[in-house]
């Protein structure tokens, strides 16, 4: 599971295909190609993700093919069924990745050993789901326990959650809602008290975790985190190399992935802290803001520094940095120890907050149940320490604010636009506020934009806001986009030095749904399998 294309520096490159993650042109390369939609089917992560998924599938098929040969006295029937269920879950997981990243996959449910067996045409996303993903997950649901004594093993809750997510993506709302409610009402999971517990070492396998990939720096020490498993000349570690992409220079990273200005504005200006949380004292932002990004005004340590002024120079137009899944709360700077930017923080693939938001979306689209949707959205908002939608309604005559709209770019930044509460407005809130803020940098945003069919509209809207921002903050030089010192008073809600970085010109101009909604099958597959391009 520890493939760097699933979670690591290679996979992080795919995160830049959204409105919430940008990159720095200092390093360029694959990050810029994905960010600006100028990649092709040979660009770095595309062949790597394809290959990694099939390594995982091959391993699962090995277990499934050889399990019948294991003597009966080695297993009880229940144990045998559980082994089969775990292997089928993993096979479903990797085929899920192929289906939703490439829109198709070549189906192999047995060990492939003959050359002619590799020559096979790809199946559609729908066929991959119906022939492999759904039946494998259904088997896993029936044969996996609710929990194990060993942490990290796959449970029936994980299988139900991934199947529910599949149904949600396919707009089978009733099926998704039913499974999601089963997970919620199982009593197995509960929200962590603070969002930050999901993204630091101390919060691994907490009450909110449903399925996570384990990493550690304490096993196979001093081995590279940039590779997985064993090679003929190198031995991989059990650590993630996500720090290369997420961490700042001072921590051994490269700032390759950065929050966009729009996302930072959402956190700082729209994620309004609930005044009832008096214990926050001088903390000016929401709990999930502090859990997700580090800003110039951020409080608390960032790799040993409590002084925002030493957060590695917010220069070059950078306004904030990512905190999730890197050990920013430590003082020893482990990312800077020559370990291929090794990071031991686990990656939560599925957690309860996502289940709540998917359930809200499912019931909203299934039968227009606005009240239940708000109830589950507000569970997430209450934990985040922000004003709930119910409270907004109570304070504003039943209306809620359009929190996704930039106040900085409006004619009157001191006011906020409000809207009636209905299925459409709550769906917009899920799409533009709750999911991007709660789940940012966790690998969901691109899939969300694509499945909702709003990617192009979002990029164009962000680009329009960006042009207004530039006109308000910058000098008349369109090339440098340097901050005009006479306009510094209007920089809020960001802290930007030197110049404004263009973040949406490429996506708005280059994104084409037919070309970019799914990745292309890599040439290496086409060269070895003539039918792969059919």
TrEMBL record:
Cellular component terms per the entry's GO annotation: cell outer membrane
Instruction: Specify the SusD-like N-terminal domain's residue ranges.
Output: 36-168
**Alphabetical UniProt keywords:** Cell outer membrane, Membrane, Signal
Residue span, RagB/SusD domain: 322-530
Organism of origin is Saccharicrinis fermentans DSM 9555 = JCM 21142
Q: Where in the cell is it found?
A: Cell outer membrane
Q: What is this protein called?
A: SusD family protein
Which family would the database say this protein is a member of? Belongs to the SusD family.
Taking the first listed entry, what is the main subcellular location of this protein, grouped into a coarse class?
membrane
Pfam families tied to this protein? SusD-like_3, SusD_RagB
């Amino acid at each position: 599971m520890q493939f760097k294309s699933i979670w690591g520096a290679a996979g992080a490159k795919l995160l830049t295909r959204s409105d919430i993650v940008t990159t720095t042109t200092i390093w360029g390369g694959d990050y810029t190609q994905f960010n600006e939609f100028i990649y092709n089917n040979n660009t770095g992560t595309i062949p790597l993700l394809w290959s990694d998924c099939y390594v995982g599938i091959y391993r699962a098929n090995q277990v499934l093919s050889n399990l019948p040969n294991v003597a009966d006295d080695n297993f009880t029937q229940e144990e045998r069924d559980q082994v089969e269920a775990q292997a089928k879950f993993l096979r479903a997981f990797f085929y899920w990745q192929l289906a939703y990243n490439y829109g198709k996959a070549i189906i192999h449910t047995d060990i492939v050993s003959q050359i002619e067996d590799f020559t096979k045409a790809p199946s559609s996303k729908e066929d991959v789901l119906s022939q492999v993903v759904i039946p494998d997950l259904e088997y896993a649901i029936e044969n996996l326990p609710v929990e194990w004594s060993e942490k990290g093993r796959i449970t029936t809750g994980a299988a139900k959650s991934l199947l529910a997510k599949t149904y949600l993506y396919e707009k089978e709302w009733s099926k998704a809602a039913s499974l999601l409610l089963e997970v919620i009402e199982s009593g197995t999971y509960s929200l962590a008290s603070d969002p930050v517990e999901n993204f630091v070492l101390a919060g691994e396998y907490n009450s909110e975790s449903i399925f996570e990939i384990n990493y550690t720096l304490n096993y196979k020490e001093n081995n590279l985190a940039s590779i997985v498993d064993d090679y003929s000349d190198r031995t991989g570690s059990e650590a993630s190399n996500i720090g290369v992409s997420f961490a700042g220079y001072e921590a051994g990273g490269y700032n390759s992935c950065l929050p966009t200005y729009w996302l930072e504005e959402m956190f700082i200006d729209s994620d309004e802290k609930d005044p009832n949380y008096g214990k926050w004292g001088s903390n000016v932002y929401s709990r999930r803001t502090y859990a997700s990004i580090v800003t110039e005004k951020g409080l608390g340590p960032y790799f040993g520094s409590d002084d925002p002024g030493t957060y590695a120079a917010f220069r070059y137009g950078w306004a904030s940095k990512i905190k999730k899944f890197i050990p920013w709360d430590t003082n020893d700077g482990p990312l800077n120890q020559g370990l291929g930017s090794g990071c031991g923080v686990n990656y939560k693939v599925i957690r309860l907050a996502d289940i709540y938001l998917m359930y809200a979306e499912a019931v909203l689209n299934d039968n227009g149940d606005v009240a239940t949707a708000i109830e589950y959205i507000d569970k997430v908002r209450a934990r985040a320490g922000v004003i709930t939608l119910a409270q907004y309604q109570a304070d504003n005559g039943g209306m809620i604010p359009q929190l996704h709209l930039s106040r900085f770019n409006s004619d009157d930044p001191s006011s906020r636009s409000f809207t009636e509460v209905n299925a459409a407005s709550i769906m917009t809130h899920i799409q533009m506020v709750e999911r991007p803020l709660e789940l940012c940098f966790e690998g969901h945003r691109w899939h969300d934009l694509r499945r909702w069919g709003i990617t192009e509209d979002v990029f164009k809207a962000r680009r329009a806001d960006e042009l207004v921002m530039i006109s308000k903050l910058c000098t008349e030089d369109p090339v440098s986009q340097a901050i005009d010192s006479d306009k510094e008073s209007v920089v809020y809600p960001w802290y930007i030095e030197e110049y404004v970085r263009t973040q949406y010109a490429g996506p708005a101009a280059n994104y084409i749904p037919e070309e970019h909604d799914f990745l292309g099958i890599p040439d290496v597959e086409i060269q070895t399998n003539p039918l792969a391009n059919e």
